[in-house]
Amino acid sequence: MMRPLYFDYNATTPILPVVFEAMRPFLTEHFGNPGSGHAWGMRARRAVDQARAQVAGLINCRPEEVYFTSCATESNNLVLRGLLEGVAGAHLVTTAMEHPAILEPARALAYLGLDLTLAGVDGQGLVDPGEVERACRPRTSLVSVMLANNETGAIQPLAEIASAARERGIPVHSDASQAVGKIAVDVAALGLDLMTIAGHKLYAPKGVGALYVREGLKLAPQMRGGGQERGLRSGTENVAFLVGLGAACELASQDLAQEEARQRGLGRLFLEGLAGLGADHMLFAEASPRLPGTMFVGFGCRRAADIISGLAGLDVAVSAGAACHGDATSLSHVLAAMAAPPEYAPGTIRFSWGRPTTPGDVAELLERLGQVLAQLG
Ligand code: PLP
To answer: Does ligand 1 lie within 6 Å of residue 178's CB atom?
Structure first.
């Protein structure tokens, strides 16, 4: 039996044991509703408060500036709709490489009259702060730029973008779903007004997220009801999952720099091994600052689907940057926005690793990848 190899941590991560153990009592005996005034409720309330403080500690804001949601998609929708929906003459500046969780609500709002500008991306997967600045107008209502791209792993020049926007009094949001827990993320140093966090990208469960909202900034709630999350997001708190997100943030706070360096080391091993395989390839966003556990690699004259199915046959999980439909290949919108070279783009695979990944896993990945590439000829 072959050992399964998971190299798709950017899609999702497992719940780590320390996170699960923190959650467990809140799935069983500590089942109280944080809104109840009795002992059960108060215990749940304290747990939610602690989780909020743990999230705030990781991103350097005040606990009162953290709002829990069900996922990154909800956080992004809350920002876009909560700030822009129904506002006459509203203008949003975002980028062509955002996740659909930004692009789709932005397009839906554009259909209703929002003025939408998508800044481009260069060949290294970076947005140009100058282009964002030039796109801003006196009535621009929001700038939203992701912190790290989920496909390339490229880390955007966000502090520069935010400072130009804020000089004009424009609030700045970042979808930091792929960055939080992987690199140091400090909302104050970045100069952000709003920031999205996804639980399941940092070893908390799926179905929990958070939104940082700078104190004083007002958003229209999208879920109205019992007034939880200080009225911004009603619905009885998913206490166990919030506790999980808090524990995951606490873990990241403890050893972020060390774990980042370890994962960068795995990346060096991977790249050296890849060079040793002798297959024609290109690392996208090579010259950009990147996440420690992401490599977006285009294999020359190959189709991503063939590599993926070959690897799947050897029990390796990765993901594609291009999809095949019959004879046609459609590139991901990120590769398209980067104008990726046509010799490499159709054969693009995203390799992403995380805390449980060992050097032995990387060596085994390279071994199996070598077999697949050799079989494809
Ligand atoms: N934003 C980014 C950058 C992502 O990578 C993802 C998930 O892939 C999301 C948003 C959406 O996350 P979720 O599906 O958990 O809402």
So the answer is: yes
